[in-house]
Amino acid sequence: MNVRVYKPRKLNGDLPGLLWIHGGGYVLGAAESDDALCVRYVKDIGCIVVSVDYRLAPEHSYPTPLEDCYSALCWMVNNAELLSIDINKIAVAGNSAGGGLTAALTLLARDRKFPKVHVQLPLYPMIDDSNNTPSANEITEGMIWNQQLNDLGWKLYLGKLYGSDNIPPYAAPARATDYSNLPYTYTFIGQLDPFRDETLTYVTKLAQAGVDVEFHLYPGAYHAFESLNPHSSVAQYAMNEYINAIKIGFDRISGSLKEAKETTA
């Protein structure tokens, strides 16, 4: 497991920390492919980004990719002073399979009681191994991602667990039964994404568990539209919105810390 760190050229005190997890169906992708995106986070949000190059299936099936992400998160927090990161402002974000790992990682960190995650952005996340929602059944072939490719991704990621009833929620977060005490969450998805309905169910369960959630469904948009066609108006709108959501998440923390200090004063 390797990480890439992105920092401003000049630092004036500690900054929020963002762990970024790339997508790729659990079988493709690399941290360096998101270099430009991570640089944008640094510039637009004013944070320090750690991008994790987790090991991929099928050579490394569950739980290795998730444990790599957990190790990266622990490394980021444990080395916060060296990295100039404010441990009171920690976010985890990723797209597609990276979104699935984001959702799984916040569950894992919550249950292991370390590290504390304050904001999560599981963007159009790959979280439901059943692959049998209405939206998955709508998009069975073609497009950038479809039901057939999704089934292959889950088969390679889950390995021997695939098809069983003993799949833990850390492998497929849609299987979780307890979504309480998770961080402020933002996510979005296109209406023509096979993950549409599992995302709708996920945000509904988060809200029912008392988690603060923001969510946007983009009509006419397909899987990973904001990265495949970044100059389109809907892509620019989506990116600006979710980058602003990270800022809002960090601002919420600042407000809570200020209120706590005033209460104890």
Automatic annotation (TrEMBL):
The keyword Iron does not apply. Residues 18-226 form the Alpha/beta hydrolase fold-3 domain. InterPro entries: AB_hydrolase_3 (IPR013094), AB_hydrolase_fold (IPR029058), GDXG_lipolytic_enzyme (IPR050300). Keywords: Hydrolase. Pfam families: Abhydrolase_3. GO terms for molecular function: hydrolase activity. PANTHER family: AB HYDROLASE SUPERFAMILY PROTEIN C4A8.06C, ALPHA_BETA HYDROLASE FOLD-3 DOMAIN-CONTAINING PROTEIN-RELATED. This is Alpha/beta hydrolase. It comes from Lysinibacillus telephonicus.
